[in-house]
Amino acid sequence: MITRTLINRLIILTFMVLVGYSLAYGIRVRSATGIILALISLGAGIYFLYLLAKAKEELKQEQEEAA
Question: SS3 for 2?
Fold first, then answer.
């Protein structure tokens, strides 16, 4: 059975691969709009991962305080 963590990681990996592909394609066709949008998407993905790690850390601290 596929765990929830594995599914989440596959979704994140797929998103990053698609962003990388779109960035490479934007550079290949020299599309400024495509490059800018791909960089914004990459920044949003990285910020999401930062927030996810921060939320997990806070949840872990709350569980330690409750115990």
Answer: coil
